[in-house]
Amino acid sequence: MSNYILETKNLQKQFKNQLAVSNASLSIEKNSVYGLLGPNGAGKSTTLKMITGMLRPTSGEIIFDNHSWNRKDLLNIGALIEAPPLYENLTARENLKVRTTLFGLPDSRIDEVLEIVDLTNTGKKRSGQFSMGMKQRLGIAIALVNHPKLLILDEPTNGLDPMGIEDLRKLIRSFPEQGITVILSSHYLSEVKQIADHIGIIANGVLGYQDKISKDQDLEKLFRQVVNENRKVG
């Protein structure tokens, strides 16, 4: 049995004449935080959308929890990609009620995830009136509601102030202890260095580096090197 919750093998996505992701082979260890780094437009979101079934791969294979990925696996995957999927006229609790009804889960799950993301005291405030940080946390609560084994967060710190980033960092680091593996995509190197156990660097659609992260590693130098090498390829 593999220690990986997710692997991709030569994953590729082509849009007409543009190769957005080229032969990406990711290896994500169970109960860890994996940082997927890359400049804007590098192929991070496209890769994550293939893993979550939002896009169909042109070629390659996705292996989830030791078997070939199928749509039933989405019951074990939570995702926050791009903007949080909120009904802005509803409260935090009402937003979550929509999801627990969909999954056939008890209302007690609403209280559990609100506590995890520290949104228990929002009362009747509509989510459209939330701060950016609160919206991000509610988006994570929605992604957590179905007890996922894998949580995918695409640029979750975008638009957050320093306090919001710090809160989110602590929250993400708590997930592996709860049996939840996290894939975190970002172009903020310092943030990923503080959160991740492993990193992958993607540039021009190519996964140019993947390994365990070292705290004394010059991540900025490595990032520039991988990006420049794959600019030459493109």
From TrEMBL:
SUPFAM superfamilies: P-loop containing nucleoside triphosphate hydrolases. SMART domains: AAA (SM00382). NCBIfam families: galliderm_ABC (TIGR03740). Residues 6-229 form the ABC transporter domain. This is Lantibiotic protection ABC transporter ATP-binding protein. GO terms for molecular function: ATP binding. The keyword Transport applies. It comes from Clostridium neuense. Belongs to the ABC transporter superfamily. It comes from the Bacteria. Keywords: ATP-binding, Nucleotide-binding, Transport. InterPro entries: AAA+_ATPase (IPR003593), ABC_Gallidermin_ATP-bd (IPR022501), ABC_transporter-like_ATP-bd (IPR003439), P-loop_NTPase (IPR027417).
